[in-house]
């Protein structure tokens, strides 16, 4: 069951055990003080898997669950400067909680800035977000030792992916035809992935993982970086640009830019199968997270990942339709 929330519970902690969330905040305060900051003067930043506070010249990011961030720290230090990731001041593990402290980069979270941007600025930001991610892609020969072939929304095995599909089928009451289509999409992705170039993907190429200050100035949070087809990052880019917060498809200059980027960088032979499969795996991961919330506020089929997943199973291919024709 979902723990009871107090009036001062942060929205990002609404589904977490209050005592666990409080302890993470205490640890973050200790880390902030160690690096010359004071947590009460810092603001809570976006992000679910980790808790992040920014201000006083630093950013403190600490994992809610036992996670070692040493691999991510090593990757970030090896990234080309042009990616724009903030400088790491320290990283480690306290009471099982991995953490990273970086210098603060002045700018606004792109997800928060997005509604205030003009259509032209939104298009510009999508192109710049991709440019920074693609710098990491091109540096893969020197970065690949720092990342695994699974993580984030990419399961370790086809069996794990099939199990996630099974959970979705039960939760959403998928028809036999939809279940067959979902398994076909997932299997197609796993089958074709070994035949294309493997690069270092950001793994969570979302608006909330970039900073905006008149342009995209930094790409953040490589915790889900994964070695695999470039379609892993492309599917997230298209979703971010073409799907609203409510899960509705939107035609826009930003969406058109994302589609153009995807069409240009997808593998000419296997790209359709890979981006379709990656998108399905992305929504399966989100659906698992939502199911764990145990929330009765909406019907399961009305949840954003539920709508997006079922759309991906239709004949057109949902928000990926222009790329699958």
List the helices and strands and how they pair.
Blueprint: H1 18-34, E1 43-44, E2 50-55, E3 58-63, H2 70-78, E4 88-94, E5 97-103, E6 108-109, H3 110-113, H4 119-138, H5 140-143, H6 158-172, H7 176-192, E7 199-201, E8 210-212, E9 216-219, E10 226-228, H8 231-242, H9 253-265, H10 271-293, H11 304-312, H12 321-324
Antiparallel strand pairs: 1-2, 2-3, 3-5, 4-5, 6-8, 7-10, 8-9
Helix pairs in contact: 4-9, 6-7, 6-10, 7-10, 8-9, 8-10, 10-11
Pfam families: APH
Protein name: Phosphotransferase
Domain Aminoglycoside phosphotransferase: 45-260
Summarize the structure.
This protein is an alpha+beta fold and 325 residues long. It has twelve helices and ten strands.
Q: What percentage of the residues does DSSP assign to strands (E)?
A: 5-15%
N- to C-terminal separation? 43 Å
What's the CATH first level of the largest domain? Alpha Beta
Helix and strand sequence: HEEEHEEEHHHHHEEEEHHHHH
Radius of gyration: 19 Å
Report the structural category.
alpha+beta
Q: What is the overall number of helices? A: 12
CATH level 4 superfamily of the largest domain: Aminoglycoside phosphotransferase (APH), C-terminal lobe
Beta-strand segment tally:
10
Task: Tell me the number of structural domains.
Answer: 2
Can you name the CATH architecture of the largest domain?
Answer: Alpha-Beta Complex
* Average pLDDT level: 93
Describe the sheet with the most strands. 5 strands, antiparallel
Q: Helix share of residues?
A: 40-55%
CATH topology of the largest domain: Aminoglycoside 3'-phosphotransferase, Chain: A, domain 2
Q: How would the global form be characterised? A: globular
Strands ordered across the widest β-sheet = 1-2-3-5-4
Protein name: Phosphotransferase
Domain Aminoglycoside phosphotransferase: 45-260
Organism: Actinomadura violacea
């Amino acid at each position: 069951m979902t723990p009871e929330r107090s009036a001062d519970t942060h929205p990002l902690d609404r589904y977490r055990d209050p005592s666990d969330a409080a302890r993470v905040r205490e640890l973050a305060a200790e880390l902030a003080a160690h690096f010359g900051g004071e947590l009460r003067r810092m603001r809570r930043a976006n992000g679910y898997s980790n808790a992040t506070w920014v201000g006083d010249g630093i950013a403190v990011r600490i994992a809610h669950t036992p996670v070692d961030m040493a691999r991510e720290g090593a990757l970030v230090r090896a990234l080309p400067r042009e990616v724009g990731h903030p400088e790491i001041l320290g990283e480690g593990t306290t009471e099982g909680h991995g953490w990273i402290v970086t210098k603060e980069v002045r700018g606004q979270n792109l997800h928060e800035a997005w509604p205030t941007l003009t259509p032209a600025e939104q298009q510009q930001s999508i192109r710049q977000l991709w440019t920074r991610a693609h710098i990491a892609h091109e540096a893969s020969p020197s970065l690949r030792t720092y990342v695994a072939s699974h993580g984030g929304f990419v399961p370790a095995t086809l069996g794990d992916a099939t199990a996630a599909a099974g959970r979705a089928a039960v939760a959403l009451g998928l028809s036999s035809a939809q279940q067959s289509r979902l398994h076909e999409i997932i299997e197609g992705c796993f089958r074709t992935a070994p035949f294309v170039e493997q690069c270092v993907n950001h793994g969570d190429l979302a608006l909330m993982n970039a900073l905006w200050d008149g342009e995209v100035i930094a790409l953040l949070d490589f915790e889900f970086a994964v070695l695999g087809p470039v379609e892993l990052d492309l599917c997230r880019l298209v979703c971010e640009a073409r799907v609203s917060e409510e899960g509705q498809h939107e035609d826009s200059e930003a969406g058109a830019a994302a589609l153009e980027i995807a069409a240009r960088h997808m593998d000419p032979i296997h790209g359709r199968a890979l981006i379709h499969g990656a998108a399905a795996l992305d929504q399966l991961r989100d659906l698992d997270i939502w199911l764990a919330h145990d929330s009765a506020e909406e019907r399961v089929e009305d949840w954003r990942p539920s709508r997006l997943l079922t759309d991906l199973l239709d004949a057109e291919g949902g928000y990926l339709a222009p790329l699958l024709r």
